[in-house]
Predict the 3D structure of the following.
Amino acid sequence: MNTSYRGRFAPSPTGPLHFGSLVAAVGSYLAASIQNGEWYLRIEDLDPPREVPGAADEILRCLDTFGFAWHGKVVYQSQRHAAYHAALEQLQKERLTFPCICTRKVLSGSPIYPGNCRHRQGAMEQPHTTRLRVADKRIQFNDRLQGLQRQNIAKEVGDFIIQRADHLFAYQLAVVVDDAEQGITEVIRGSDLLTVTGRQIYLQQQLQLTTPSYGHLPIVVNPAGDKLSKQTFAQPLNSDQPAPQLWYALQFLGQAPPAALKDDSLSEIWRWAKANWCWHAIPSQPKKTTTLPDQ
Ligand SMILES: [Zn+2]
């Protein structure tokens, strides 16, 4: 068993899984399977107000129904605050952070943080976010599916938030700490997260963590061109019909499963997918003619 490859799927429990989540899960799962690697699950329940009670359990049941098998215990971000806090303290000790009291109004119309509070130091009583002081340097990585990516965080994003005013840790910080803790060697996920990858790599460098490889899959959009999500009222996956939906997910990923396979068993479709997985066939962007499964 080659256990040097470690992949992961990390859904947020804001609602049931939809076809877009299935595509991301299938991509990361097959990437791990064909390399005899391990595939881990992480529930990204970092933001309690956005969560739907019972959604995390429903997600796990749904993944099980679709035939996914994961390694070890499921990691819940809600139980990892001590680790995030330790990372924040490490950055604070190295004077890489500062408190920011800019209101939304002050920052409105400015996609790049203008550095208003950069000069601030130390603790602060009044409500504030904590930002990472970003150096003017280029982050570069070779995405398995989207090719060479370059970003200068200072110029394109600015000093970014790592802890919110309500004390919740920012997604970028939590993900970086968790990927390192779980020993993830490759992150396969939707390309809606391509633009934040630079920030995550920058954080890994500040925390002296290993940077995994990245591959960003095409995201599934509805006919109006919006990413499938709870906000765009994406249909939940139908757990009564996993096989044809898995077939459609493979087709979306450019894998050309035979038509007859659609009516076959779940295990036959998985068997075919593992035997025929082809990275080069995955489109970098979704094809205009994408067919979504009827549900
Ligand atoms: Zn500020």
Summary: The radius of gyration is 20 Å. The mean pLDDT is 93. The domain at 6-79+218-281 is CATH 3.40.50.620 (Rossmann fold). The chain is about 30% helix and 15% strand.
